[in-house]
């Protein structure tokens, strides 16, 4: 993974902290990669990776999963981690995850997203259909954005795919949720999965 990221001049690799606990450079890195290891609790994995001497904020992190159970994924989520990739993901996935995380966005690889949805569905509201029929139909552009949104794409990915600015995508997403009577993106994803007869949403 280090070699993969070093191929991109956009990234500067900062090695893990040496034994004395002092970081290799002043200040925290923009993104920390956390390897999910068997036998290491979530708290033990997250605490040293996210806290540097003198640091007052949690550093953004990407957890590299090796087929972890859903309970560990939820453990990381409760610890504040919002980005995950599988160790065997395609080469382009890790750089995309690092960039999204550096922007403050969440990043879930397909398998992790499916697992979270599978676990969350039984505990969610019984009806995730729109509360009322849309008073105004979705425009063609909104339909395009909605399809990408429910496929698990981030705002940045939607913007790139549609040739729009991030601000415009946020505007479209807000309009879509308002028209469909939905509270958030997760509700939209689950509704789309059920409407198309899928158990989970595939990104």
UniProtKB/TrEMBL annotation:
Residues 131-196 form the HTH luxR-type domain. CDD domains: LuxR_C_like (cd06170). InterPro entries: Sig_transdc_resp-reg_C-effctor, Tscrpt_reg_LuxR_C, WalR-like. It comes from the Bacteria. Gene3D superfamilies: 3.40.50.2300. Keywords: DNA-binding. This is LuxR C-terminal-related transcriptional regulator. It comes from Streptomyces amakusaensis.
């Amino acid at each position: 993974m280090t070699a993969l990221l070093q191929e991109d001049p956009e990234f500067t690799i900062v090695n893990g902290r040496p034994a004395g606990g002092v970081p290799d450079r002043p200040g925290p890195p923009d993104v920390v990669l956390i390897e999910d290891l068997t036998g290491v609790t979530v708290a033990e994995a997250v605490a040293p990776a996210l806290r540097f001497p003198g640091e007052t904020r949690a550093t953004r992190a990407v957890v590299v999963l090796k087929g972890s159970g859903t309970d560990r994924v939820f453990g990381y989520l409760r610890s504040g981690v919002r980005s995950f990739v599988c160790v065997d993901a395609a080469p382009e996935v890790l750089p995309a995850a690092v960039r999204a995380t550096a922007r403050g966005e969440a990043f879930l690889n397909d398998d992790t997203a499916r697992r979270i949805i599978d676990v969350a569905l039984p505990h969610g509201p019984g009806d995730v259909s729109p509360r009322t029929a849309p008073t105004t139909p979705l425009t063609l552009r909104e339909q395009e954005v909605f399809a990408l949104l429910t496929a698990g794409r981030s705002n940045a990915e939607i913007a790139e795919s549609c040739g729009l600015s991030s601000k415009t995508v946020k505007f479209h997403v807000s309009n879509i949720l308002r028209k469909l009577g939905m509270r958030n993106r997760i509700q939209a994803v689950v509704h789309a999965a059920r409407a198309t007869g899928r158990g989970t949403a595939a990104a």
